[in-house]
Fold:
Amino acid sequence: MNISEEFIAELKEKNDIEEIISDYVPLTRKGKNLMGICPFHAERTPSFCVYPANGSFYCFGCGAGGDVITFLRLIEHYDYIETVKFLAERAGMNFEVSEEEDESHKKKLLIYKINREAARFYHNCLFAPEGEEALGYLKKRGISLKTIKHFGLGYSPKSRFALINHLSKKGYNNEDVVLANLAFKTRNLKEKDRFCNRLMFPIIDVRGNVIAFGARTMGGDIPKYINTSDTPVFKKSNNLFALNFAKNSGMESFILTEGYMDVVSLNQAGFQNAVAGLGTALTQNQVKLISRYTDSVLVTYDSDEAGQKAAAKAITMLKDSGINVKVITIPKGKDPDEFLRTQGKDGAVRFKNLIEKSENDTEYRLSKAKKMYDSGSDEDKINYLTNAARILSSCQNPIEREVYVTRLSLEMGINKSALIMQIEKFMKQNLKKHKKQEFKNLEKITSALNDKINPEKKENLRAAVAEESLISYIINNVDKASDIFLRVNADDIITNFNRRVFECVKSIIAEGKTPDITSISAKGDFNFEEIGRITKIICSYNSQLVNQKTAYEYINIIFDENKKIKVKNVNELSEIKVKEYIETLKSDKK
Ligand SMILES: [Zn+2]
Structure:
């Protein structure tokens, strides 16, 4: 795909990075730059920085970084073409992309098409004679025709070739159907349908594309639910079921449930804000996804042990991302779908009552602690109060804390100040632990010891630091680049990653273009982590500290380190090899 540099430059100029990132992350000005809570990892103190001067961003916590295009690719999971298209539309620029122009983009579009056709096929099968049982099942569970259509629910027939034959008749290639994970190749290399005799739930992204399917068995197959595996358009851990509806529900909070049927029933009862994970425990990416649309979540998981464990984990993750959490407790251990069904016509009203009664998570945890220690013995009393203090120490809102302290002291007949002292003690411990953890994480990412992006940095720390500073100097002083390139070659750069960056920058300059994070990402074959690192190298440049003189010093360090490596290598060589080596040195001089 060839998009001209001029076009990209205009695109970036018309799409202010500060404006775009502000749509996702509240930013506070810090001098020339802006800081905010990183949307790519869970944190409480901001380490996400936007540099309007060179149109880039970098997170000191997780290492994510790049330009406005990288930002959108990471946060929206767009591919390159989609991002350019989005930004062009936003800026009112004309950008025509023909399908032939980008292979992977073309493949994605094809998978969307195949998924849509499959959804249509499954939906029709639900109303065909073979879908009778599945349709009956939905009816028995009180799902109306309107809801079935709203979700596009369907049925995958028992035949192992129903979908693949249908799609083949429509002109789709079997290989592509396999790529969409709607079929698989058997040992004798014949393609078979992946979903058979199952109730089908299309998973639709916020842009209306059918990206995958959830499927519930109508026979006794195990597991009861299966999903599309990861494909070029779908990653289980990055998506939620019914987010497309919840996003437009206009409601302040989301209801997070465990199952597809819960979401379907809740929607039918008027709760369009219900979403569900895709058969795995809630992931960090899903939490981040939720936090983009709402800061308040009502959690309602199954009341069995597994469900409660999952709920506890989900609550912690949501809270850590600054989301307000309330827990809806459904009486008699039912799940939302069962509850709505058994309540009949009054289901919606009764569920609304449950929401109103829903405890925020502090309350939920306190009542759980109380149940654990309810013998009335002194020992249990102490245990309960200690536990309660620990729970309250994680409560960020001081007013909320005050309310519970008052209530607890009355309830247990103890002095408020004793309880407050205990809470403060725990809070100090938490803070220490938290800071330690954040520091540890930061260290892990930034330390040369664990440098995954440039693993050779560990062995060549002095050289690598000089290389990074030199690269940064070149990018920030393009007029001095030719002078530097006369003095140092790519071969002199010791660490492999830095050499790749150096070569990329050099060739961009040779083409008469400006080396910046945009041109480097477009030209070099770098992944997102590497682009983040390059952004860091560029942005950590300090023009006051680095001038031509210091740049020469970096070059000297690089040469110095090269010599050391040669000496070291010579020491390790055999006598014959040394002779050979001296010969090559001689011929080099000629
Ligand atoms: Zn981050």
Observations:
- Residues 416-446 form the longest helix (31 residues).
- The chain has a mean pLDDT of 88.
- Residues 5-91 form a domain with the DNA Primase; Chain A fold (CATH 3.90.580.10).
- The chain is about 55% helix and 10% strand.
